[in-house]
Amino acid sequence: MKKSISFTIPCLFMLSCLFVSCAKDTGNNSDPTNARAKYLGKWSVSEVWTKLSYEVTISADPNSESGVFIYNFANTGSSGTPAGALISGTTITLDPDQTIGEGWIVNGGGIYSNSKIIWNYTINDGATRIDATATYTKQ
């Protein structure tokens, strides 16, 4: 009986270690540079307030692990100052109160799902504030 118990305890310990090592990691240890990878590239934009369709390019900010630049945000032109934003999982948030285009101040963010970003943001040209929505579809 003594041999059976001394053999059973180490076996149970090894089995429990096996189950623990196979458990799904639910911690948030994801690499932020990989989290933003799905955002990078060319996007087709359908904007509700202007009823325009155009393209934007999202590229990685080399000075930030979770930052990106959005060229042609709000159809300001791809050679203009890009809008800066931060990625956190499925959320992209514009840097607050930044100026793009012809002096437009933009704020807001979007949610990524199924290769699309649904945006809600504001544009203020100094005289008028516009509440805008847009859908970005990955090309």
Describe the fold and architecture:
By secondary structure, the protein is an alpha+beta fold. Strand 7 and strand 8 (116-124) form a beta hairpin. The model is unreliable at 7-29 (pLDDT under 50). The protein has helices spanning 2-22, 32-35, and strands at residues 41-47, 53-60, 67-71, 83-88, 91-94, 98-100, 104-113, 116-124, 129-138. An 8-stranded antiparallel β-barrel has the order 1-2-3-4-5-7-8-9. The chain has one domain (32-138): Lipocalin, CATH 2.40.128.
Quick summary of this structure?
The protein is an alpha+beta fold and 139 residues long. It has helices at residues 2-22, 32-35; strands spanning 41-47, 53-60, 67-71, 83-88, 91-94, 98-100, 104-113, 116-124, 129-138. 18% of the residues lie in helices and 45% in strands.
Total helices: the number is: 2
Any low-confidence stretches, pLDDT <50, length ≥5? 7-29
**Main sheet: strand order:** 1-2-3-4-5-7-8-9
Q: In the CATH hierarchy, what is the class?
A: Mainly Beta
**Elements, N to C (H/E):** HHEEEEEEEEE
